[in-house]
Fold this sequence. Notes:
Layout: H1 6-15, E1 21-22, H2 23-37, H3 41-54, E2 58-64, E3 67-70, H4 75-88, E4 99-102, H5 104-113
Antiparallel strand pairs: 1-4, 2-3, 2-4
Amino acid sequence: MRDRLQAFVTEILRDAEDDWIMVDSVIAYGWEAGGQEGDDPREVTVELIRFLLEEGLMRVGDLGESGFEAWTCSVDESVRKFVDGCEAYDWEPQGALWWLEITNKGRERIDRSA
């Protein structure tokens, strides 16, 4: 992950510290980061989500009867599902897709950055 995206990772984790966040939040940070450097915001968003999942900082899932229900598929499959869903909504899901939950490892990272 590019160093300049680390600040966005920290912000995403802080946003999720108290509650689940919609994938829309990660997309918004991807657009912000991409705009700053002239990169494709979709690629930046995918880079952010892949990093969050690979590093075990967050889990992606659905809201179900029991609350947050994390996906059990691999990171690669989760990223593919994420991209497919975002593309189906032209990268503007407006709450129609999934949620992210911070993990204990994500909380530890926030504590270290404070």
